[in-house]
């Protein structure tokens, strides 16, 4: 994801100026100034340094061909989904191709909407306003294909890791970054119900509070800056409760409970052997950890691959004809991205210890 983000071909200066003209009108030069060369270019948009009302800003401009290309591609996917629905209705009942494409279309539309991203940034900033050590850009203006937001200083995660090489505090610093990123995701999932679904390393900056990067980060004196909120997700209450209960059962290694939860709360299924389904889910969870005799006191990222496990659960659901909601798959992707970063930084990070306060708070709220 990081390579895709940095390697996309930028559009030209004229297209940037036309985007600003379209968004801000004829007097746009009196409101914002941008550097001619972008600092980064992704699949949907590119980002320029700039100045807006005396502030240093980042100006995000959607590529001119993006919306047209996305619209055309989604039309093809919608046609194929409807065709699959008509040609194989018995399979479509539980795979729901039309629903999956509709959900994907909504997310792609949002990812190229600067107004939606600005709203998402405001929500994330509000949710993390009292959370020390996590920073979100502030949006100042969003219109059509342009977003003007605060310019956030910091080291891209890959560059920060290079700076840590050889430092005696490197292990502690990596552990601190992994823990902060995981806690941020858990808070989004279990407290805020507003999940940034694209937290790959290219969208994360580390901003040390001191000149010595390794020493500052190791003692927790840094901000984790989360960029690019174009893909965020809020679950309906029913789906949120289902996901939290399922996640808790996975962390407890209670595979049979996972299986029964999936069946009891599925919107649709044609599973004809409830116990076989629960047993298949249980086997997946038991196989996902090598420390089954160690009890429940420690579940590390190196030991339990939540992302892979949840993808395998999706496959079991397919084989047993159990339909899961499209947003479940998106949430799985969000967890997998952050979990992968966390595992590379600190495979010994205790998932149960980090998740327990959030799971307990959700349980307390449900009991009220």
TrEMBL record:
Name the source's superkingdom.
Eukaryota
- Kindly indicate where the leader peptide sits in this chain: none
InterPro entries named among the record's database cross-references = ABC1_dom, ADCK_kinase, Kinase-like_dom_sf
Domain ABC1 atypical kinase-like per the UniProt entry, residue ranges: 34-258
Q: Which UniProt keywords apply?
A: Kinase, Transferase
- GO molecular function annotation: kinase activity
**Annotated PANTHER family:** AARF DOMAIN CONTAINING KINASE 2 (PTHR45890:SF1), AARF DOMAIN CONTAINING KINASE 2 (PREDICTED) (PTHR45890)
User: What name does the UniProt record give this protein?
Assistant: AarF domain-containing kinase
């Amino acid at each position: 994801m990081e390579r895709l983000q940095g390697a996309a071909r930028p559009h030209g200066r004229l297209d940037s100026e036309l985007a600003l003209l379209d968004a801000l009108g004829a007097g746009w030069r009196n409101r914002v100034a941008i550097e001619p060369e972008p600092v980064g270019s992704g699949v949907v948009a590119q980002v320029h340094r700039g100045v807006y009302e005396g502030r240093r800003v980042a100006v995000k401009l959607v590529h001119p061909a993006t919306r047209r290309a996305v619209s055309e591609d989604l039309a093809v996917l919608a046609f194929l989904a409807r065709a699959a629905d008509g040609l194989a209705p018995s399979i479509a009942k539980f795979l729901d191709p039309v629903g999956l494409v509709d959900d994907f279309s909504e997310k792609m539309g949002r990812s190229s909407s600067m107004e939606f991203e600005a709203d998402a940034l405001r929500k994330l900033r509000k949710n993390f306003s009292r959370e020390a050590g996590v920073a979100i850009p502030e949006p100042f203006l969003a219109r059509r294909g342009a977003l003007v937001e605060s310019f956030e200083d910091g080291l891209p995660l890959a560059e920060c890791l290079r700076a840590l090489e050889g430092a005696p505090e490197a292990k502690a610093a990596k552990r601190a970054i992994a823990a902060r990123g995981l806690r941020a995701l858990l808070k989004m999932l279990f407290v805020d119900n507003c999940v940034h679904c694209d937290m790959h390393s290219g969208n994360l900056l580390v901003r040390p509070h001191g000149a010595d990067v390794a020493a500052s980060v190791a003692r927790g004196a840094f901000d984790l800056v989360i960029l690019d909120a174009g893909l965020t997700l809020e679950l309906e209450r029913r789906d949120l409760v289902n996901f939290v209960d399922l996640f808790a059962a996975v962390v407890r290694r209670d595979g049979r409970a996972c299986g029964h939860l999936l069946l009891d709360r599925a919107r649709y299924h044609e599973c004809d052997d409830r116990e076989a389904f629960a047993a298949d889910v249980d086997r997946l969870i038991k196989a996902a950890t090598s420390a089954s005799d160690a009890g429940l006191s420690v579940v590390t990222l190196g030991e339990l691959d939540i992302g892979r496990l949840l993808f395998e659960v999706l496959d079991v659901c397919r084989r047993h004809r159990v339909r899961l909601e499209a947003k479940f798959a998106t949430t799985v992707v969000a967890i997998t991205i952050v979990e992968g970063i966390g595992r590379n930084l600190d495979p010994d990070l205790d998932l149960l210890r980090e998740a327990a306060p959030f799971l307990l708070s959700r349980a307390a709220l449900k009991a009220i």
